[in-house]
Amino acid sequence: MPIILVACQKGGSGKTTTTVNVAAELARLGHDVLIADCDKTTKSSTTWAQDRTQDDTLPRVHAIQKTGNVREALKDLATRYDYVIVDAPGHDSQEMRTAMTVADLMVIPTRPSQFDLDTLPDMTKLVEIAQDMNPKLKAFVLLAQVPTDSNGSEQDEAKDYLRDYPQLPLIDAALKSRKAYRDSIPAGRGVIEWSNPKAKAEVQVLVKEIQGCL
Q1: pLDDT digits (tens, 9 = 90+) for 40-69
Q2: What separation in angstroms does the CA of 16 have from each of 49, 128, 153, 160?
Q3: What residue segments make up the domains of the chain, in order of their start?
Q4: Fold of 3-213
């Protein structure tokens, strides 16, 4: 079954928010989902999954912590779940690099700022190296924490920037900087289970694009 790696080389990009919201939507759709939390510093997605178990009305999302060389562990977990979503550390790491060798899809959340976009050339090189070992690996950039008052110019500027890196296409989905993403986390919920229809729609578009890539 598919392994989806959510990773980037810069902290604060919305990596864990992306992970848990994708997991919640896939679970809502009836899939058996596991988050492999590889960030030993924060363990945020593990905490979210534990909080989620307190509400029996929510579809279960499993979580497990894995660090170091995670390649063999992920291959094994993929035989047991419909989807394995890897929440990698927010920097270049052994966990990210070894996950890239077995992942089917890599989602790279990136804020639409120049500092964040400047990390993508190095990420492009890492993806190319990983694809030599894992030809099935696909990768795309997801704009996250996009200001809600943006008129679209930041997304357009990001598209212009990424034209120089066709190995990392920018998908149509984008996650805006909405309070709903922050408020739903302590309850172990995704925004799909919250009260903000715009945030729900963003996640649904993202998950459809993910499924279309697999």
Answers
A1: 888 899 999 999 999 999 999 999 999 999
A2: 12, 24, 25, 26
A3: 3-213
A4: Rossmann fold (3.40.50)
